[in-house]
Batch of 3 targets.
Target 1
Amino acid sequence: MKRICDPFSYGDGPVAQSFWADTVPLPTRTSLHGEERAEVAIIGAGVTGLNTALRLSRAGVSVVVLDAKQVGWGASGRNGGFCCLGGAMMGEGRMSKTFGQAATRDFYMTEKAAVDFVDQIIVDAGWDVDRHSDGETILAHKPAAMARLTEEAAHIDSLFGTSSTVVPKDALRQNGFGGAFHGAVTLPVGFALNPRKFVGSLAGAAEATGARIYCDSPVLRATRDGAHWVLASPNGQVRANKLVIATNGYSSEQIPVWMAGRFLPAQSSIIVTRPLSQEEQSAQGWTSSQMAYDSRKLIHYFRLMPDGRFLFGMRGGISTTESVHNSTREKIRAHFERLFPKWRHVETPWFHTGFVCLSRDLTPFAGAVPNEDNLYAAFAYHGNGVAMGSYAGALLANDILGRSDLPHPDILRAAPKRFPLGQFRRLLMYPAYVGFEVFDL
Ligand SMILES: Cc1cc2nc3c(=O)[nH]c(=O)nc-3n(C[C@H](O)[C@H](O)[C@H](O)COP(=O)(O)OP(=O)(O)OC[C@H]3O[C@@H](n4cnc5c(N)ncnc54)[C@H](O)[C@@H]3O)c2cc1C
């Protein structure tokens, strides 16, 4: 597989000390041996691929899912568990200019529809995924950020008919948001979940309705043979009429060739504390079960989990080597101590990193690949794929089934252009990240 980041980032090193890995083993499945046939083949067993598989198999379509590792091995089994609004990094102004106001509005409505979609799946199936948090809270990282947050919340309220809550700086502690922040806004949309329990439940449900899932089965080539796609894996192959690409930040340049240059993996990292006592929570003043993030460009995201452990995540990081992975652990720990100084003594035994995925236009994609028969793809959720990736997976199933019972906004159908610089395109992130770090001061 031709991939654009350091080989370390595609191995198990980045998740060797993951809290999720320690507490919820990944569902294993056998690897592919011999030839399988299916109407639809899906590459990638994360939330995108599994939602496509689940919806298709429930509709009676034969489906085979192949993953190079295990179910949820990619970002879907290592994320922060924020089922929240998001999916694009393009600002609203630019989005309106590029796609028009109506399309922009449709896109924002889809962000909420995606959260509701995941909520519905979980509630309908009665899955226990350690849910908590009533919407999400955004904390101002500097005084000037509060005005922007308040304005954005008012805009979201006018779109969704919700009522956000503004918490001034002097009321943060009393609301359980004690830390180095300058005010907060709570949007009443979204909830937190255990990502591995969610992805494992999706896999089980897809299999229960007939989907076949093979693990440790990397697709090394995806080629056409007449009207069929043929996927070659080390010990077998799959022959299918339609192919779905659900590999997001772990994509490779030639599977299939159309993907080359259209995705940009970017890092996100997480540390998790040991359980915090009530006294420790009160000493810091963070007692809320709200999932939260701050107003930086390279955001910190965090939540007190139901078992009293605190999960703290951070976006950013350019290089993906083992030594940078190790130094990121020190960096994220320093950020954690700066924002929550009363927890300087608290150990953080767990740490992992993983890839989110960006597109050149900073909007996600979900749909049929233009000018390519029977090829579908969904990727580039810009670090917010629990809801948007799940929904995008369902949209691909709908496209295949010819259904339109879920809104599918035009912005999601706009296929990502190629980045400049080919396999060296990650260099483009250097100036962007320097700019973000200046903004975040
Ligand atoms: C540390 C971290 C924290 C995050 N936190 C959040 C959060 O709190 N909320 C949120 O909404 N989003 C979050 N995200 C992003 C979110 O996890 C992703 O957007 C989402 O999981 C993408 O799902 P996916 O199924 O498209 O891809 P992935 O889950 O990345 O799955 C891709 C799969 O494709 C497989 N694959 C790749 N190539 C091949 C091949 N050739 N053959 C076979 N298999 C292949 C990989 O093994 C992998 O399992 C976070 C991401 C990270 C890394």
Target 2
Amino acid sequence: MGNYKFTKKWFERHIPRWEKTLDGLKKKNEKISVLEIGVFEGRAAVWVLDELFKNPESKLITIDTFKNIFVNNDYESTFRKNIKESGKENQVEIIKSNPFDALTKMNYEKRMKFDFIYVDGLLFSCDVLEGIVLSWNLLKEGGIMILDNYEWDYFEEEFNNPRIAIDSFLKIYQGKIEVIFKRFQVAVRKVDKEVPRTAREDKKLD
Ligand SMILES: C[S@@+](CC[C@H](N)C(=O)[O-])C[C@H]1O[C@@H](n2cnc3c(N)ncnc32)[C@H](O)[C@@H]1O
């Protein structure tokens, strides 16, 4: 554990549920790969590095614009210092970009698939939906995705808040996911479910 500096305690309340949900990865000695969208000062990132990274080949990729309309401090420097402090700096790739560009590139390059993806920091429902769908393809079968801000109601108009995007995702992808928990954060596992078809001739796809 490094000598970290954080100005916010947003992440702390999620730790017990993360411990439980990610226990399988915690026990894994093989290399794992994690993607985090929206990192702020790196509180969740260093938790991943400290708790899940037993193998020196494990890799954390982070995406952040480092432009936050709500906070007026240089959290990018704090993030970089905290990552250095973890002693696992060489296992972290920092992508300073908007998620659409970064995720599109990652999908196109097919460089890697992830065991765990944490989607945080996206504020508008459209961005949330786009972030989830673009990162979904980067999640391994059996992998876990945690989505933050499900109950966040910052915007006056409901359609702008993350809930509608997350609900839409859960509904449309229900044949491919298992919901682990659904509270302020939502956790899902990617699963391969059979798709039942109707017996009628005219409904056949092939
Ligand atoms: C709540 S903080 C993330 C906290 C972090 N995940 C943790 O748990 O320690 C939100 C982050 O999202 C980032 N952010 C805001 N809008 C973004 C966007 N469109 N794309 C990527 N990151 C964004 C902000 O710069 C900020 O670092």
Target 3
Amino acid sequence: MRIGIIGTGVAGSLLAEGLAGFDVTAFERVAPGDQAEAGTGLNIGPNALKALRLHMPARHAALREASLPWHRWFVDLTDGTRLFDLDMRDVAEEPGLRIRWSELYRLLRAPVAGCTRNGHALEALEEDAAGRMVPVFRTAEGLRREGGFDLLVGADGRYSRLRALAAGEPEGTLLGVCIWRLLVTDAADCPYDDYGQWFNGNARLLSFRVPGGAVYIAGTFPLPVEGQIPEAMKTAEAQRALFTPAEGAPCPAVAWMLDRIAAHLPDIHWARSATVPVLRHALGGRALFLGDAAQAMVPTLGQGATQAVECGVVAARVLRAGGDAAAVAAARDARVDFVRDFSLAASDTLLPPADVVAGTRKKMGPEFLGRLRRLYTEVD
Ligand SMILES: Cc1cc2nc3c(=O)[nH]c(=O)nc-3n(C[C@H](O)[C@H](O)[C@H](O)COP(=O)(O)OP(=O)(O)OC[C@H]3O[C@@H](n4cnc5c(N)ncnc54)[C@H](O)[C@@H]3O)c2cc1C
């Protein structure tokens, strides 16, 4: 069986590595080494680490080596009042990790460089006389065809071209939340380390250190559901007002972040939080979708890249054993439904009229922690 993988991000790279020895070619639109110095940071959940530890131990070791452990998760108000404090080992078998985006891609792409064609952006889809899919790529030299494939895997992210070509452009659902992200590299004086969140009303800062003396900061605030992000919110003054408590001063951690936001405003990446309906396969099973291409979810529990890891690991296992796209769906979809529902439910405090103090304290209760334990450990 000839397999073509579109996109060597998280899911695509892991799938290509897991299918070593099979007839696999991966196609990636960016050049080799692209994103090496760019991008922000991210946290990957203990569930992805467990999947890698069980099935791809070399990749587990490489990621651990290049990252910081995610041991602790706390939630404060922006005045410093503590609402939630969790030792990750209470709900997981191992810590998660914190890493720079560029480093994650470098480590996942390196082992599959030999089977990857860079500078190939999927543009169109044709069929050969034998009924095999023929992807058409835009390259620097013009359009290129690489022959027919029995299975094409769309691991090309949230705006998957393969999914649009095979099943139509999916309709996204907006959560009604703006999310911005920033990587601060001059962060030696940052007054905190592990994963923290700070609320002022429903507006929230999230931040942690990543390797190389850098700090990742993400901010969210409510938006009218169909609304654009107002330009007036993209100023240092507006962000300072958003996260400054009504009474008193911001705590030192928040004061530090507000200064960094002001200093690095042009580097901030602004987006609206959205989901798309899950689609695992199309074209009679000849197109399979993994990661964000299949299941883009709200980022509240940091499960986007984490679930893409699970997807790559599980799909490789299923396809190696002779399974098809339907078998991957059987192995993945119930788990993905659970994670998407949980991520959405956990977003409650990001939206009015939720009471952040009551809602966050409730998350230290057995119901939320039980679901978190399921999320972080139910991987085989
Ligand atoms: C700034 C930012 C911060 C994030 N932070 C977090 C976080 O902290 N935690 C978390 O879990 N998730 C986070 N996410 C979400 C996370 O990025 C995604 O959920 C995750 O990368 C999905 O992995 P994937 O393998 O499905 O796709 P991606 O990692 O997006 O990879 C898709 C790949 O396909 C390639 N590609 C795209 N189109 C084509 C085409 N037409 N032809 C060929 N190749 C193509 C791309 O170049 C890329 O290499 C963040 C997202 C962003 C944008």
